[in-house]
Design a protein that fits this description.
The protein is an alpha+beta fold. Helix content is about 20%, strand content about 35%.
Length: about 650
């Protein structure tokens, strides 16, 4: 009597295992007991069944994964889920640049002239960097030089202006207004609708709550492949488009993040200005801000992270995550790191950081540069925070308090284990430190671990056998020159003091930004720096004298105090207070004075708005052959002996 075949196993998803299960199932049936499943035609049928099963299994698994924001892999799926949570992803964003513009004309009769929208500005040092002004702008005649017409604070945008047209067909229910370009700046799309002889400008809607049936508004959202889609009203919320009308979309094709970090001057190229002779932006100086705000298309992971936060805010700012969500939702392309803390988080024992109830402090590190302009901070408060904030809480955007890590390392290597030169190994170590700093140090609320840094150095190349590394903390003081300053400088940790030596390290010309200072006799002395003695800060300078005795010249360096007791320093807390500190100039026309000290520990933890950061130019690497290495003047852990 024939036995019934065993039940087929269906848990496997791998094709080979599916095929094996099918063959095993059929072999259990006495009808197929004598069949050769490795060479018969039944083998082909088994493989077809296995493939069909595998394809269906993969399709169902993928379909289920794409149904949830956390597991979706396709960008279109992630974007769609984000829309359901009220978050609109952005495409490429153009960098912008604030410029002072001067145009020279051959005719001086006009008091003002118009700089037309989309006048081309080409970077003088690189013709591939091209910017345009966003709107028609008035330039005023210079009262001294009549041929010059000038404007200040004019916003230039990186990209190439372009235009796309649609003809509205209300009889086509599938019509969508999708601009077929994935490099369009979503935030600078302007729309005009022509109906007969009438042209109407439509505005990008920021708040749908005030929209009615006659509101000329549109929305921009991401369609497939990163293309922007324009969505218009339906006659209830927003004005509906009329059949046969023409939609004209003007936009900029952007280079994204490649447009950042550009400084002028620019020259005006081929303007449509009567009597034009030439034109340019003002030369750059210390106050010139680099172009910023450019970003590539928003990543899937960023959308996945921000969408739930945006939904959780419920259009108000109460919690820390609420503030982060509304700010990053609008300005994520400008921001490298952000932290939010309440005034109640202050330290009651610290007179400088006592609790400040009723305040919310927002510390933001720019993606480009180290600080935002005051105008940008005010725009965050006015345009982003206040429309969502609750009564009784005052938000304030503050700068990060940077603590610079000065890294010096000596790495020993085995020359037989690598084909790299010493210079190439040095570059590899600098790259490793730079990458480690960007990923693990330059964030708020992120501790610095000395052992992990040294591990990153040792792992930079297999030929590196060991390394000795020294860490200095550096604070950069920005005094007002020529007047008395009262400043508080916080290193953020306890400092190491070696016997009677100064806890503040002696600067060199390249590392200290020394300064000039008026002595008590009224004579200005150059090459001064700050020095500590028993917790007191003095302004000092080295004076070099030569003496010759019996033909032998002796050079003596004497430390002279130019101004004593200009401040104090607490080595336990790392807090330095300067009073009546009045430097006259800073060497190399710098704007800040650098003060270095050694930390008392290799593990450092920032608080509030403090952040550790590393500048690539301050990383010093020496690579030596391990068979011929000589002792170094510092020990691992960053302390001098």
């Amino acid at each position: 009597m024939a036995t019934l075949p065993s039940q087929i196993r269906i848990a496997e998803l791998d094709y080979d295992q599916i095929l094996a299960n099918l063959v095993e199932f059929m072999k259990a049936d006495p009808t197929f007991s004598d069949y050769d499943f490795s060479g018969s035609g039944l083998r082909l049928l088994s493989r077809v069944l296995a493939y069909v099963t595998f394809y269906n299994s993969y399709y169902l698994s993928a379909a289920v994964n794409e149904s949830f924001l956390d597991t979706a892999q396709l960008r279109s799926s992630v974007v769609s889920h984000a829309k359901m949570l009220g978050y609109q992803s952005h495409g490429v964003q153009s960098a912008t640049y604030e410029a002072n513009v001067t145009v020279i004309l051959s005719d001086t009769s006009a008091a003002t002239i118009t700089l037309p929208k989309n006048t081309q500005f080409v970077l003088q040092s690189n013709s591939s960097a091209v910017f345009y002004n966003l709107d028609d702008t008035y330039l005023s005649q210079n009262t001294t030089t009549a041929n010059n017409y000038e404007g200040t604070g004019i916003t230039l945008i990186e990209g190439r202006p372009a235009q796309y047209r649609f003809t509205v067909d209300t009889l086509d229910p599938t019509q969508r207004f999708i601009i077929p370009n994935a490099n369009i700046d979503f935030s600078h799309i302007s729309v005009t609708v022509q109906s007969g002889q009438t042209s109407v400008t439509f505005e990008n809607a920021d708040d749908m709550l005030l929209a009615n049936s006659s509101s000329n508004i549109f929305l921009v959202s991401e369609a497939y492949d990163g293309y922007p889609e324009l969505v218009f009203g339906n006659g209830v919320i927003g004005k509906a488009l009329e059949n046969g009308s023409v939609v004209i979309a003007d936009y900029y094709i952007s280079s994204g993040a490649a447009g950042n970090n550009i400084r002028g001057p620019f020259r005006i190229q081929s303007p449509s200005i009567a009597n034009f002779v030439n034109g340019a932006t003002a030369p750059v100086d210390a106050n010139t801000v680099l172009s910023s705000g450019g970003s590539d298309v928003e990543s899937i992971e960023n959308i996945r992270y921000l969408a739930p936060l945006t939904y959780g805010t419920q259009n108000r700012t109460v919690t820390v995550d609420d503030y982060k969500a509304v700010i990053l939702g609008e300005y994520s392309r400008y921001i490298s790191a952000i932290t939010i803390f309440g005034g109640e988080d202050g330290d009651p024992s610290d007179p400088d950081e006592r609790p400040y109830y009723g305040r919310v402090f927002i510390a933001i590190k720019p993606a480009t540069g180290v600080r935002f302009t005051q105008a940008f901070k005010e725009s965050i408060i006015t345009n982003i925070i206040k429309p969502h904030s609750i009564v009784g809480v005052l938000p304030q955007v503050i700068d990060p308090d940077y603590i610079y890590l000065i890294i010096t390392t000596q790495a020993k290597y085995d020359p037989r284990a690598t084909t790299r030169t010493r210079q190439q190994l040095s570059t590899a170590i600098i790259d490793a430190v730079d990458t480690y700093a960007e990923q693990y140090i330059e964030k708020f609320d992120t501790s610095f671990r000395f052992s992990r840094l040294t591990r990153a150095i040792d792992d930079a190349d297999p030929a590196i056998s060991s390394s000795l590394t020294r860490i200095e903390l550096q604070k950069r003081i920005v005094p007002t020159l020529g007047v008395s300053n009262s400043l508080i400088v916080k290193f953020g940790t306890g400092l190491f003091k070696d016997g009677n030596n100064s806890v503040l390290l002696e600067p060199s010309q390249s590392t200290g930004h020394r300064f000039s200072y008026l002595g008590h006799d009224g004579v200005e002395v150059n090459n001064c720096f700050l020095r500590e003695r028993d917790g007191i800060i003095d302004v000092v300078v080295y004076v070099t004298t030569e003496s010759t005795v019996n033909g032998t010249t002796t050079i003596t360096r004497t430390l002279n105090v130019i101004d004593d007791a200009v401040g104090t320093i607490d080595i336990t807390t790392g807090v330095m207070r300067l009073a009546n500190f009045a430097p006259m100039t800073i060497e190399n026309n710098a704007v800040d004075i650098w003060v270095n000290a050694l930390p008392n520990s290799g593990d450092l933890s920032p608080t509030l708005n403090r952040m550790f950061t590393v500048e690539r130019d301050t990383i010093t690497v020496e690579v030596v052959d391990e068979t011929a290495a000589t002792p170094v003047s510092f020990y691992q852990g960053g302390r001098l002996r």
